[in-house]
Specification:
By secondary structure, this protein is an alpha+beta fold. The chain has three helices and ten strands, in the order H-E-E-H-E-H-E-E-E-E-E-E-E. Strands 4, 5, 7, 8, 9 and 10 form a six-stranded antiparallel sheet that branches. A four-stranded antiparallel sheet has the order 3-2-1-6. The termini are far apart.
Length: 208
């Protein structure tokens, strides 16, 4: 009787039973490892996504400020960003001076200083990101523990840029759900905008 031999050199029936047995065992091991790796990867993936969203939101805010400054110079009039809402639900919009005396909330309410952009929130474009100060974050200037209002623009609800390019001095703090803390700094004398990131391990701010 002739025994058919597979390409491996083993009798065909032996090859089939050997492969079937090896495949089942392999699948069981691979499945178990996949479940373990998936459970480990979920928080890492989520945390990485939060970091990316927080970083993108901070850069988006910087671009909005650059746009407001350029628009003020182009118009020859004050242009600013008005902030509205509670610390956990802040919305903002571009406004322009209508009577050459700077941007004032009373003039905005009267319709003299006009809103020239739609309201938006950071979370509209970057899920989970908001103006906020995380635990253990230090003040950019003093190095003391930082709490309270994440919008530090002199107690005003408006951050404005002049036709000459100067601005309201201040710092805007924002963060994601588990992402790093960012600070957007506005230097009044020059209107320059800087982006900083807080490193928890070293407890210091670095350029982002």
């Amino acid at each position: 009787m002739t025994t058919r031999v597979g390409g491996s050199g083993w009798p065909e029936g032996a090859v089939r039973s050997r492969c079937a047995g090896f495949t089942l065992a392999e699948l069981a091991v691979v499945l178990a490892l996949s479940l373990v790796l998936a459970a480990m990867a979920v928080p890492l993936i989520g945390g990485g996504r939060d970091h990316l969203l927080a970083s993108a939101a901070a850069r988006h805010l910087v671009s909005q400020l650059h746009h407001a400054r350029a628009d003020a110079v182009l118009r020859g009039a004050y242009v600013g960003i008005r902030f509205d809402g509670s610390p956990v639900d802040v919305r903002y919009a571009l406004v322009a001076d209508g009577n050459q005396n700077g941007i004032r909330v009373v003039d905005i309410n009267k319709g003299i200083d006009r809103q020239i952009g739609s309201w938006e929130r950071l979370s509209d474009h970057f899920q989970g990101v908001q103006f906020s100060i995380g635990t253990g974050v230090l003040d950019v200037d003093s190095g003391s523990p930082l709490t309270g209002d994440p919008l530090r623009i002199g107690g005003s609800d408006v951050l404005s840029f002049s036709p000459g390019g100067t601005a309201t001095s201040g710092t805007l703090y924002l963060k994601g759900r588990s992402g790093p803390q960012y600070a957007v700094r506005i230097l009044g004398a020059t209107g320059r905008v800087r982006l900083l990131r807080f490193e928890s391990a070293s407890r210091r701010w670095v350029a982002a």
